[in-house]
Amino acid sequence: MTRQPSRAPSPRTRARRLHEKADYDPATLHAILDAMPLAHVGHLVDGAPVVTTTLQWRIGDRIYWHGSSASRMMKAAAGAQVCVTVSCVDGMVLARSGLEHSVAYRAAMVFGVAEKLTDPAEKTEALRLMMERLFPGRWDTLRPMTAQELKATAVLSLPLTEASCKIGGPEATDPPEDLGWPVWAGCLPMTTAIGAPFAAPDLPPGIGVPGYLSAFRWG
Question: How many domains does the chain divide into?
Answer without folding.
Answer: 1
